[in-house]
Amino acid sequence: MAVKNKYQVLILGHGEMGRAMEYLLHARHTLTIWDRHPVPNVPPVALESAAARQDIVLFCLPAQPHFELAGRIRAGLRPDSLCVSIAKGLDDEGRTAVRALTQALGPQAAIAVLYGPMISEEIRAGRPAFAQAGTARAESFARLRGLFAGTPLYLEHSTDIEGISWAAVLKNVYAILFGVADGLELGDNMRGYLATAAMHELERIVAGLGGSAGAAHRLAGLGDLITTATSKGSHHHELGRLLARGATGALEGEGVHTLKMVRAHRLFDPRPHPLFDLAGRLLDRPEAARELMKNFLEQLA
């Protein structure tokens, strides 16, 4: 399929990232927006028939509904349609977004992921954002560059889809620890330690899950970790602060769910990765956050 100047694009989900994608794309492309909860007084979009007309389908949703929704649209998708996910979490089966889409659509489908520093509020404010476009096909990357041409979302290509997917998913767990450290007022030196130790663990885990260790150091890993761990509006940083205060309610988010799915599906053994293991113990015992962090630091001596 030749790269075009204008695409028919279906945005699935109209939350923070769905609206950010709408902001980036509405001026140049023809958009259709589907959401489980349609806006009052706006005619609902029939998912299956809408998907059949699209060049590109953007999954701006958590990972959980990817498999179901992809299954619903599979029969009507054109053979040259490109399905793209920005979900940085796991579904209840322990699948990354790309694995869920591949299982639902089949190995012949054109699939891509976008991962990196992409805070939705900054995108909608016209500020620059950055992402790795993970796709095995050069033609799919060319389409994505055409899709976002003229916008402040800057892309780099990666064929290491597994690597950048796991880096994007797992970095949320480490971002929580930055919030814990800040909530306990452990200082800037602690942040420096967390950054280096987290990257050491992340590269080993990613490699063990089938990706390239180098993915941890690119936009989907280190780039997004810095953003998520330091942004004032970061949900995962705030989760860490809640843990530091001993809160047991409202502990939800992609990082929390990732921890639960790693355990439930035994995706890897957390014990050889002390920081990842610490995040799990903090989630189990938020009332003991200060004690757990103190014990962790003592073990470094």
Automatic annotation (TrEMBL):
The keyword tRNA processing does not apply. GO terms for molecular function: glycerol-3-phosphate dehydrogenase [NAD(P)+] activity; NAD binding. Residues 47-133 form the Glycerol-3-phosphate dehydrogenase NAD-dependent N-terminal domain. Residues 160-264 form the Glycerol-3-phosphate dehydrogenase NAD-dependent C-terminal domain. Keywords: Lipid biosynthesis, Lipid metabolism, Oxidoreductase, Phospholipid biosynthesis, Phospholipid metabolism. GO terms for biological process: carbohydrate metabolic process; glycerol-3-phosphate catabolic process; phospholipid biosynthetic process. Belongs to the NAD-dependent glycerol-3-phosphate dehydrogenase family. This is Glycerol-3-phosphate dehydrogenase. It comes from Sulfuricaulis limicola.
